[in-house]
Give the backbone structure.
Amino acid sequence: MLDAGVRAFARSGYQNASMDEIAELAGVSKPLVYLYLNSKEELFTACIRREAAALVTAVRAAVERDASADRQLWSGLSGFFAHTAEHPDGWTLLHLQARTQGQPYAREVAAMRAEIVAFVTQLIGAAAREHARGAARPRTLAGTEVAGLAHALVGAAESLADWAGDRRAGGPSAKEAAATLMNFAWAGLGNLLRGQEWTPERIG
């Protein structure tokens, strides 16, 4: 039933998806859907929670814990893009449908995003510490810098996942999307850690 709900909500939208349609997709009767999930609202919430938990689990599981900092970040990004590519309806549900239906659905997605941002913050912090150990003149990132970089990276990943999911627009594969973002993020982070910061004064 949850699989059917995710598919219907992602493809028809919350307002247009009907319990009749969901029951038909699930191969069960509509009364049975209502027996397990009392309302369309509860079904929508259950679908959001399941897809959010699956995405977070996929990202965490993909990270190679004992690898170098860049390998950990790469594996996490690869896991994110692989999951969103393999579950396009789930991603559409989370990133489009849930966010546009107001509270409390948007809160569910915000909680998922906060968990991913916190995880990415840990990865970037570890990368900064790893670089500092091997640098002659280590650059220490402030907590706000690390948090800001994590938010920027997650936001970029979300945007790329939307683009990659639209194969008609020539979007990249999951691996290409991960490599694009890794090159963008890691090169910039490396320069920052080496003290090569961009400032508005550089452009006069």
Summary: The CA atoms of residues 118 and 145 lie 13 Å apart. Residues 105-134 form the longest helix (30 residues).
